[in-house]
Design brief:
mainly alpha; 131 residues; single chain
């Protein structure tokens, strides 16, 4: 029997409503956990797939200018420059089309976006110097 605290005179209908609420709550919690797991899988996929595409594009641009940064410190800097780009892309666009819906999802501020993008461009600019 479900304990209702200091209200022992509650009838059977109210006890059934409370039990139904907790059962429904468990279903919603399970569904929410599934959405979070799917969203994490989606984020990992975005990092690998879009990150690889960005890396190929950047290395192709370097190849046009005759610069190779593969197997050097510059290659690591290029790899680290891709992460802020992916973060800005996810936070400003992709998070709103995912599995996990939450009212607290907001875009990055313009200042934060600018700082992250400028730092990525700076890293991509100096990466060839570390060959």
């Amino acid at each position: 029997m479900l304990y209702l605290g200091k209200y022992p005179s509650c009838n059977v209908h109210s006890r059934l409503l409370i039990a139904a609420f907790f059962t429904d709550y468990r279903k919603k919690a399970g569904e929410m956990m599934l959405r979070v797991i799917l969203e994490l899988f989606r984020i990992i996929t975005i990092i690998f797939v879009i990150g690889m595409i960005m890396g190929l594009i950047i290395h192709s641009i370097y190849a046009i200018f005759g610069i190779t940064v593969e197997n050097t410190t510059g290659g690591w800097i290029v790899g680290m420059a891709i992460f802020p780009l992916l973060y800005v892309l996810y936070k400003n666009r992709l998070q709103f089309s995912g599995f996990y819906k939450n009212g607290k999802q907001v875009k990055l501020s313009n200042r934060t976006t600018t700082i992250l993008l400028c730092s990525s461009v700076l890293m991509l600019t100096v990466a060839p110097l570390f060959r």
